[in-house]
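Good morning,

Attaching, inline, the backbone tokens for the sequence recovery test we're adding to the shared suite. The designed sequence is right after.
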């Protein structure tokens, strides 16, 4: 029985010639640069934040900042238009350069470069989609904005001199994911981006008629000739109708799980997810649940609202786990003095070997009903697609556990268990650390302000 149902839990299912999951921003930025260099007509960027000072390949000597790089592209190609749409609240809440967003920068001073702030959202809501569409031929969708404090390599070394902001601030290791699609699916994501542009600016953009091959030359496809579902959250506000595809999709794919649920989430505070997983884990039979979240929260407000409420949700779910089918982890790498946490910024759900979802939405309340989000989902219908999903899961685990993909795959198969397979391989300085009970110090009840900062619907 199909889980993806257009009109219920996704906008549509669109055909993709090739699909790949790109792990961590160093790999994403490098592949994005390759695609941008081949652009001819249109580059459309939507983000929660944007900073033209960052470099897509900071470890290379000849890499120029993103803003001047985009400016060089339009100067070379007389038919190319570049449009950037950024959440208006980024000038206050995001880590990038607010003055360039408010007052502009020299690289923006070109008639075919347009940067706009998206202020069409309810109170305390944000435009949270993170996508780039190039010539309607290729699209990148996931959790990675083109801004500061996102670039990192898969090694996530405690110290990396290239992992710093343009101001010289050194930030901690960070893990994230982006999905890239080619073909009709990219054009469909272009439609989503153009509609958001219309809502935010009042201007209608035309689709790109000509298609070209922009696939990064060194990127291996994880899927070929497959259907990709596009799911959204759009808050109801003014003349804009509410779209809750992501909330419905979350419930539907979790309910479809038979053997395992593998989750990576920056935030984990959703009351609906808590209720569902509590029921699932209390049942005598059901899937194993492995959840990777960040242990520490960098910002004070984030610690107070998202961190404390995450602790509360995790305790609720743990109490329901009567049959030892639940694990909460956070990833670490070896440090000079002690283990160094890798901050989880990715938004991933893998159900068995059947469903893969990557996008911008967190497992918190606001991603389900308040913020503007976009996720991509693949539902496997044959053995080749199922193998690709399980192999991706094992590849992601292998990175965190510092083992080969073959080893973690064999351990899972040998034990007949995702949890026991992880535990068998989780014996290195770099690995997954379980949350101790003392790590969960949030209150019993939702803390004051939750209904404002993590609401289920617009205020």
């Amino acid at each position: 029985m199909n889980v993806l149902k257009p009109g219920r839990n996704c906008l549509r299912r669109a055909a993709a010639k090739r699909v790949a999951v790109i792990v961590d921003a160093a790999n994403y930025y490098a592949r994005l640069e390759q695609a941008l260099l081949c652009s001819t007509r249109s580059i459309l960027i939507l983000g929660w934040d944007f900073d033209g000072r960052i470099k897509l390949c900071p470890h290379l000597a000849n890499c120029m900042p993103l803003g001047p790089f985009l400016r060089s592209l339009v100067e070379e190609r007389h038919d190319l238009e570049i449009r950037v749409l950024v959440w208006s609240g980024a000038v206050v809440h995001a880590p990038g350069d607010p003055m360039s967003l408010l007052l502009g920068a020299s690289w923006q001073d070109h008639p075919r470069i347009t940067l706009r702030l998206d202020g069409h959202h309810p109170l305390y809501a944000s435009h949270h989609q993170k996508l780039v569409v190039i010539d309607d031929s290729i699209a990148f969708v996931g959790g990675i904005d083109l801004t500061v404090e996102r670039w990192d390599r898969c090694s996530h070394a405690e110290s990396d001199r290239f992992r710093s902001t343009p101001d010289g601030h050194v930030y901690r290791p960070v893990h994230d994911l982006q999905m890239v699609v080619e073909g009709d699916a990219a054009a469909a994501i272009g439609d989503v981006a153009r509609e958001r542009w219309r809502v935010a600016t009042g201007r209608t953009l035309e689709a790109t008629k000509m298609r070209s091959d922009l696939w990064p030359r060194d990127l291996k496809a994880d899927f070929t000739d497959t259907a990709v579902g596009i799911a959204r959250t759009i808050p109801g506000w003014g003349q804009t109708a509410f779209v809750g595809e992501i909330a419905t999709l979350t419930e539907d794919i979790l309910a479809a799980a038979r053997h395992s649920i593998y989750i990576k989430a920056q935030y984990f505070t959703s009351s609906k997810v808590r209720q569902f997983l509590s029921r699932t884990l209390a049942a005598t039979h059901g899937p194993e649940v492995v959840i990777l979240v960040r242990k520490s929260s960098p910002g004070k407000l984030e610690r107070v609202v998202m961190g404390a409420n995450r602790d509360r949700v995790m305790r609720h779910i743990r109490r329901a786990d009567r049959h030892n089918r639940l694990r909460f982890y956070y990833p670490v790498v070896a440090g000079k003095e002690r283990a160094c946490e890798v901050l989880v910024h990715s938004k991933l759900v893998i159900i068995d070997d059947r469903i893969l979802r990557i996008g911008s939405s967190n497992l918190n309340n606001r991603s389900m009903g308040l913020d503007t989000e976009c996720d991509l989902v693949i539902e496997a219908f044959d053995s080749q697609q199922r193998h690709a999903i399980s192999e991706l899961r094992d590849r992601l685990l292998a990175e965190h556990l510092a083992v080969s993909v073959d080893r973690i795959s064999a351990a899972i198969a040998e034990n007949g268990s995702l949890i026991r397979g992880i535990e068998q391989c989780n014996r290195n300085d770099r690995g997954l650390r379980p949350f101790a009970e003392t790590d969960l110090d949030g209150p019993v009840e939702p803390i004051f302000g939750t209904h404002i900062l993590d609401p289920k619907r617009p205020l």
